[in-house]
Amino acid sequence: MKKALLFIIALCTTKAAYTAEGPQGLTTGVVIGGGGFPHFDPTFGNEKPGSVNNYRVVAKVALKFSNGVFIPSDSVRYAYSGGRSGLINIDRPNYDELFLFDDAVTYYYNNSSAIYDNKLFRKQTFDAENKITSLRYAIWHLPTQAWKDSARYLYKYMAGTKKIEESLFQLWVGGTWSHNVPSTLSYVGNNVVSISSNAYSATYMYDANNNIISITDQISQHGTGNLYNNERKTYTYNTDNEVDSYTLEQWDNINSRWVFIRKFEYTYYQKNIDESLEYYWDAGSWKLYGKHTYAYNSLNKKTSEILQLWTGNAYINHTFETCTYNAADLIESITIRSWNNATASWALQSGNTQMRFYYEYFAPTSIAYAQHDAFGMQLYPVPATNVLNINLNQQQTSPVMFTIRSMSGAVIRQWQQSGSQLQATVQLDGIASGNYTVVANTASGQSMVRQFSISK
């Protein structure tokens, strides 16, 4: 269901808090070394999504349309244990800071070599209650062909709660963790009312229904270390506690005043956003920029979003976003097309983008969670180009039969492999671009099916 939710990430150094109305980076909402504050969202009451669905996203890929085909740009692979999970939110598909992954690897597509290169590694640790205790970043070091630590966050919680009390940001410098930047959160009930550190602060205000009505943040000025106003966000609500409007202001240091930047106004139909109007501030008044129109399926899942720009006397078509879902009703792809004036139709054009998402089924056995899926299989990179790596997360005492099939069921490749902890690297030469499945069958009757794609 598409709603104007307040997706807020509080950053504790020179990065300002923001709402995610616009696109974000595929890899993470936090800039490495920027002192970000992941795993915090006041509108979710700091609850971390766990095993609420027996599916979890294991990979996502971003592609860009060029010369008549989609070309990969980057990809992320997620690995989980302990029954933890992560699922894509259609309203912010690029945001994964709430995923309970053990580790995540980001690959950037190398056009010259037509393969994926390692780029970013993230590792999380958890306590007995599945609360995140640390998040570590590492970047790929080409000279040594190994991951090199970059930054990390350490978390402390209020006793007996899931409320983060303090986040400590550190950089890896000269073989040790240093440059400590602690951030402290204050609460009234379950609502975060302030975040403070020596580099960033934010103040949150709520109405009687616990809706956020304003966020004001300050950032540290380079050289002085003093905190100065940065951005202010204000929200209004209708009688159903849905966001009526969102307004962004920035601080004008020269004139010492708040200056309007952007505004969104929302209308709803049956709890879904029907339309939103986007404005920009110009010459002392709000000017209409464009209109977003949404459509949904019978399950209230967004199927399309059309952006039309305002010319001053009429709306003109600009972009058309379509969403598809798999059999489990999970988002499978998001594709953006542009308006073609020559043909008066929506068409894929150079620079248009697509995101694809891949899932696996898992079955946690209790609240304490099993340590591993009964029989799990991970594929990477996605999409594959020249090779496909397959990992099984359970030791095998008998051979496993692997089969690659086309979506029509035709057997493309088949082989049998033995090994206690099975890992396979499959050469994909001779297999055309497209969607396929890998089936792994054991002698004991266990079976696992994973879908993947090849893009050459």
| CATH domain fold name of the largest domain | Lipocalin
**How many individual domains?**
2
Unreliably modeled segments: 1-52, 365-375
The count of DSSP E runs of length 2 or more, i.e. the number of strands, is 30
User: Quick check: average pLDDT?
Assistant: 81
Q: Helical region count?
A: 0
Description:
There is one protein chain. The protein is mainly β and about 450 residues long. The chain has two domains: about 10-360, Lipocalin; about 375-455, Immunoglobulin-like (Sandwich). Helix content is about 0%, strand content about 55%. The chain has no helices and 30 strands. The protein has strands at about 10, 20, 55-65, 70-80, 105-110, 115-125, 130-140, 145-155, 165-175, 175-190, 190-195, 200-205, 210-220, 225-235, 245-250, 255-270, 270-280, 285-295, 300-310, 315-325, 330-340, 345, 355-360, 375-380, 385-390, 400-405, 410-415, 425, 435-440, 445-455. The strands form four sheets. The protein has a 20-stranded antiparallel barrel. A hairpin with a 2-residue loop joins strand 9 and strand 10. The two termini are about 35 Å apart. Mean pLDDT is about 80; it is low at about 1-50 and about 365-375.
